[in-house]
Each structure stands twice: as structure tokens, then as C-alpha cells.
């Protein structure tokens, strides 16, 4: 879609790109959402592509993902054989409601910063205990837990001119046992709920997304029984559950409880 209110595009931004920030600006990453709808509040785009933040770096300590890494490149990654949970990278890419054409342009950082409940890169990074490096307009950086970044539907902690620079996933999370459950109204539809669980020995880390306005991560030091797990989900506030044509809050709460118990049973069978 033509953005007919945009009068300028910064093709060669400084690093940090937010140093040029002013009202009416937007950062341009893949642009797959930005050009899909009217953006009448925008006057200028700051193109992040020339900064080259697109690397995927595999190290002993984990995986570093540049914010401009495309979904296509993430999906093509061949991880170390001792990272079983790295299969969640591909699973999350496949959860996109998007064609291969979108995969070629859409970026990991763009999906995270859109901060939609069904953003699969949010699911992936929260479940795998990632941290985000944010770069401020003055060049300073801060590191935040992925679980603390999204605050609501299309809302996050970024300040004006602040940008997501990279994502770091620790190797310890990638070496965990894992499973997931995802529900959609149609086979290739938007996620109504997307739950990921990881386990090291006898603990449980359960991440609920898509059905909630922001990610919910529940940590148990040991495997809970069915009643304890159901109670934790039941205690989540009513306003947390997302409401849209893909599912009502009651439906999503029901799915969360059902899939969480299914996951608990699966992990418990494996432990025995």
C-alpha cells in the first residue's frame, strides 16, 4: 500500500538510528506490516536495512539473532545437534500467518516490536528465555528479559527512538526438553493460543501466548500436580485473556488449561 503521508525516507541512518527521531517517524525493517495498512500518522521512515543487523551467530553461550534477520534465514538455520529445543525456531516460523514472500522480507525484530499477541517470534524468544538488547537514541543500550518487553496488544516498553538491536537465546534453554501446543480456527490461520513448555530435569517452564494480551511465563521448580497447574492458570486475571474473532477469553482460558494439563501429562510420562 502507498503511504501517501510519508514525505521522506532516511536511507542511510546513523547508528544509533534513533538519534534522528522526531514526531511522525517510524523505523522500517521488512515493512511487511507497515505497507499493509494505512499509516496516516507517519511522515518519515528510517530504513534500518543499511545497518546490517541481520546476522545469526551460533556460539557456545547460545544463539545471537540480529533484529533484522529475516524469517527465511532463521528458518534455514542448522543448529548444533545438542540444542534439541532449537526446533522451536522452525516451529515458530511456521506459526506465521504469512506466505513465503513475507518470510523473505519480514524480520525477527519487526515481529517482536509489533507486539501483537499472536507474534510467533515473541512466543519463541519468551519460551527460550531470551534477552533483548535495546539501543537508545543516545547510543546507550539496555538488556531486558523477553518476557518483560511486550506489555499489551501492540504495546511494549520501547521509548521514542529506541530500537531493538539483537536477541540472545542462551544455550542452556536450547538444550532443554521441550514441547508445544497450538490452536487455530483454520489449518493455516492465526494462532488462537500458542503454548510452549521446556524442562530441565524435573522443573517446568510454561509459556502462554496468542491467547493473552502479553506473554505469560510460569516457572515451577518441580513438576506440579494437575490441581496446582490448573489453579495457576485459573488465577490469571480476566482482562489478560485476549478477545478477537479468533477466540473469546473464555475459550482461550479453556484451551490454556486443557493444553497445559496435556503437556504436564506428557512430561510426567517421560520422567517416569
Order of helices and strands: EEEEEHHHHHEEEEEHEEEEHH
For the record, give the distance between the C-alpha atoms at the N and C termini, rounded to a whole number.
55 Å
| Total domain modules | 2
Tell me, briefly, the overall form: globular
Main sheet: strands, sense, barrel: 5 strands, antiparallel
Report strand order across the widest sheet: 4-5-10-6-7
CATH topology of the largest domain: Uridine Diphospho-n-acetylenolpyruvylglucosamine Reductase, domain 3
Estimated radius of gyration: 19 Å
Overall pLDDT? 93
CATH class of the largest domain, please? Alpha Beta
Give the proportion of residues in helices: 25-40%
Runs in which pLDDT lies below 50 for 5 or more consecutive residues are none
Structural class: alpha+beta
Strand portion: 25-35%
Tell me what the CATH architecture of the largest domain is.
2-Layer Sandwich
Task: Explain how this protein is built.
- The chain is an alpha+beta fold.
- It has two domains: 56-172, 2-Layer Sandwich (Uridine Diphospho-n-acetylenolpyruvylglucosamine Reductase, domain 3), CATH 3.30.465; 176-270, 2-Layer Sandwich (Enolase-like, domain 1).
- The model has no long low-confidence stretch (mean pLDDT 93).
- The strands form four sheets. Strands 4-5-10-6-7 form a five-stranded antiparallel β-sheet. Strands 11-12-13-14 form a four-stranded antiparallel β-sheet, with helices on both faces. A three-stranded parallel β-sheet has the order 1-3-2, with no helix packed on it.
- α7 (226-234) packs antiparallel against α8.
- The protein has helices spanning 71-76, 87-94, 100-103, 108-114, 120-127, 171-174, 226-234, 249-271, and strands at 8-10, 25-28, 44-47, 56-59, 62-66, 131-135, 141-145, 150-152, 155-156, 163-170, 177-184, 191-199, 204-209, 216-220.
- β8 and β9 (155-156) form a beta hairpin.
- The longest helix is centred in the last third of the chain and has 23 residues, at 249-271.
- Helix content is 25%, strand content 26%.
Amino acid at each position: 500500500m502507498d503511504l501517501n503521508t510519508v514525505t521522506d525516507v532516511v536511507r542511510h541512518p546513523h547508528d544509533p538510528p534513533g538519534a534522528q527521531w522526531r514526531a511522525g517517524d517510524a523505523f522500517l525493517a521488512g515493512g511487511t506490516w507497515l505497507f499493509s495498512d494505512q499509516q496516516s500518522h507517519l511522515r518519515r521512515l528510517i530504513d534500518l536495512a543499511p545497518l546490517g543487523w541481520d546476522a545469526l551467530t551460533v556460539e557456545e553461550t547460545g544463539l545471537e539473532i540480529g533484529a533484522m534477520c529475516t524469517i527465511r534465514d532463521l528458518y534455514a538455520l542448522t543448529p548444533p545437534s545438542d540444542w534439541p529445543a532449537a526446533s522451536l525456531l522452525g516451529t515458530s516460523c511456521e506459526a506465521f500467518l504469512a506466505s513465503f514472500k513475507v518470510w523473505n522480507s519480514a524480520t525477527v525484530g519487526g515481529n517482536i516490536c509489533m507486539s501483537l499477541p499472536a507474534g510467533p517470534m515473541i512466543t519463541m524468544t519468551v519460551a527460550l528465555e531470551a534477552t533483548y538488547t535495546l539501543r537508545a537514541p543516545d547510543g546507550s543500550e539496555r538488556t531486558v528479559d523477553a518476557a518483560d518487553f511486550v506489555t499489551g496488544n501492540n504495546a511494549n516498553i520501547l521509548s521514542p527512538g529506541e530500537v531493538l538491536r539483537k536477541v540472545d537465546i542462551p544455550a542452556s534453554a536450547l538444550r532443554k526438553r521441550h514441547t508445544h501446543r497450538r490452536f487455530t480456527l483454520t489449518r493455516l490461520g492465526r494462532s488462537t493460543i500458542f503454548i510452549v513448555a521446556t524442562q530441565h530435569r524435573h522443573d517446568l517452564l510454561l509459556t502462554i501466548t496468542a491467547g493473552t494480551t502479553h506473554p505469560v511465563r510460569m516457572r515451577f521448580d518441580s513438576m506440579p500436580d494437575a490441581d496446582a497447574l490448573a489453579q495457576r492458570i485459573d488465577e490469571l486475571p480476566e482482562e489478560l485473556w485476549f478477545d478477537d474473532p479468533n477466540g473469546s477469553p473464555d475459550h482461550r482460558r479453556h484451551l490454556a488449561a486443557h493444553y497445559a494439563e496435556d503437556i504436564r501429562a506428557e512430561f510426567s510420562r517421560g520422567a517416569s
